[in-house]
Amino acid sequence: MLRKKQIMCGILAVIMGVSMTGCGSSSEKSETEKKADEVKASGEEETIVLRILENDTAKSEGYLDELLEAFNKEYEGQIQAVDANMEEYSNLAENGPYGYGPDVIYQANDKLMTYAEDKHILALNKEDYDCREYIPQEAWDAFTMTIDGTQYLCGIPVNVQEPMLYYRKDLLPENWEQEWDQDGNQVPDFLENWNDLYAYSKSIVEESGNSKWGLVAPCNDLYMSAGFLFSYGAYVFGEDTKDIGFAAGDAATGMMALRQFAGIMNEECIDDSIKQSRYSKVADGTYFCSISTPDTYVLFHDRLAKIYEEEGISQAEADQKASENIGMVELPRLLPAKGDLSVPSADMEEKDWVSNVVMGGVNGYGISAYTKHREACVTFVNFATGYDLVKKRAEILGIAPTRSDVASDIGGVSGMIFESLNEGHIYLMPSVKAVDQIWDPMQTLLSDVAKDAFRERNGETVKYPDQDAMQAALEKVSKNIYDAIYTLAQ
Known about the structure:
Layout: H1 9-17, H2 31-41, E1 48-53, H3 56-60, H4 63-74, E2 79-83, H5 92-95, E3 104-108, H6 109-117, H7 137-141, E4 144-147, E5 150-153, E6 156-161, E7 164-168, H8 176-179, H9 194-208, E8 213-215, H10 222-225, H11 227-230, H12 251-262, H13 274-283, E9 287-292, H14 297-310, H15 315-325, E10 326-330, E11 334-336, E12 353-355, E13 358-367, H16 374-384, H17 387-397, H18 404-410, H19 414-422, E14 426-428, H20 439-457, H21 467-487
Parallel strand pairs: 1-2, 1-3, 8-9, 13-14
Antiparallel strand pairs: 3-13, 4-5, 6-13, 7-9, 7-10, 11-12
Helix pairs in contact: 12-20, 12-21, 13-14, 14-15, 17-18
């Protein structure tokens, strides 16, 4: 049954009239609704078709197919959910008003809330969703906005994200317990602090004659590199979006550390090419480790399993072996307070470190304000955020689910991530439209900073030779972001 029509049309109609969806009052029936009434009156049944926009990994790894198959079987003859067949970052604001957008969209909180601020997605009623009692408040907060003193929920959380370090357990040095575990806690020091990760990465490059590397990551990606800013006192927005904090605190110190580490990476770290190659190059051992999000675990695992299969073992054995050898942990928790990664960790005291603060986010489902089938969309989202499907998503993609019951049953990193969130080690992406303006300027600067490491290596003139130059660059970027939000938009 279509949840016995418990989606409460009246409540949604009121919400739509309170300037949330931009669709105006729904007191008068649309032509589509009138047609549906005629179909019902005639005794005929019409199957509702919903277009679902999922992320690319969910599509490529088969999760979306399983979700659609399960839902369509459950609601056969009533609702049919289909792949929206759109690129995952398709612009709802541009496509929705013309009828080309999806009915349901799966995205990160910053993107969904940008749509919400411009009234492109519906406000939701938490009570309509069975997952409500299992999801922590921090996750709900990421999809909540306040207008004229009233709070609105605009998305249903599914998984929490933060940058994770992926590495090859089987490529750990044989003597790591003697050489790389000063505190004897059975965790390699280079997984706990950035100075040892720098030292170990440098040793790999030197010993291999520049044919292998330690850490290689997308330096130009703010989401992946934000720890080099936030850990030193930077932030995105302060009390409001006029306070832009990328140049705050000792952010220039962190950026100099990022440039230093880029100097021992492969040049792929400069641009987006690493985002595709990291899976295969960690798998084949070219890189000891890289950085990505929890929901890409399956990509690292499958690339390594494929290599094992090519070596002649069965698929089941290859899967098991890949599971044993792909490690996924949070980024090293400690960074050098003075920004110099070359100082041996043995020579540093507690006061010489700062705690790593990374950028994070929450992914979830939103419902388009332009859908003609609100009740059916709520039904789909309730189904997709149920225990079975969230567990299936976790099994296939390796996500960190926000549902506490799933997280408890599957184990993994969810508990660790929420603990880090509570302790302030994760800075959630702001859920406001203005955040759209931060990505391009910061990506350009981060890429340029990484290039500086290679300019220096090649004997070319560097752009940011010292912290003063780096500070000036950060201040310029912050001003450009301010202008994009306020000055140029007018």
